[in-house]
Amino acid sequence: MKIGMFTSGYQRNPLEHCFQDARRFGYDFIELWGGRPHAYAPDLKAGEIEDVKRLIEQYEMPVLGYTPEHNAYPYNFMIGSELQRRDAVAYLKLCLDMAKELGADYMLVSPAHAGYQADYEEIWSRMEKTIRELGEHAEKKEVKLVVETLTPYESNAFKSANDAAELFKRIDSPYVVGMCDLVPPYVQHESIMAYLDKLGDKMYHFHIIDGEQGTDSHIVPGEGSIPLKELFMELKEAGYQGTATLELVTGYINEPRLYARRAVSQARAYMKEAGF
After folding, report:
1. Mean pLDDT over residues 197-215, rounded?
2. Domain count of the chain?
């Protein structure tokens, strides 16, 4: 199983630090956060993508995943007028274009909060329409569109393995696939391993991280309450062959280099014990 670094927590550092550290600490790839100052898609389109390509080549560290900033201000395709939804879709199509140019295997999206007035019919109609449009563009670009479930602290639209399975019943595309961030199922008392059973061959990626009940905080592996050692053993026994990113996000933004080193060191120890 290949282990990636998510770069969001480095946003107060130069992007080069991410590539330096991914290589130094033993990560296999980068999941590139698509926000300023590092890799915002319009900036990449305007020429800054060449800087990222230089880092990929210099440090021999591929960008397998691209995760644009899109479930907060100013982009959230689940809320607002149709004009605003179309604007978010146009932005995410540009993000797919940039993911392709970076050589990424996948781009990640997560349906965020649809607002307190939206009912289930409105939520699912909007989500299905949007993911279908993005999936069609992803297929043209030959980039997988990975759709991520969120915690109830973040979304009222897409939160569980059942939600993901329902989406894939509605949208049957080889380029629209799913994933599991460990925190959403954990804080909802849902089975993490059920994602493998319910999504089957649509289960494409993991965000592996530790967590605590009652919060969506993403914690360094081994420092929360999720039984990660046993989880790695189960993933090994289940024959999981996909990728995983250690998603520290911004909880350690003051010292991302220290915690990125600790995170991969502890994850590798669990993997070794599990036989990966």
Report:
1. 96
2. 1
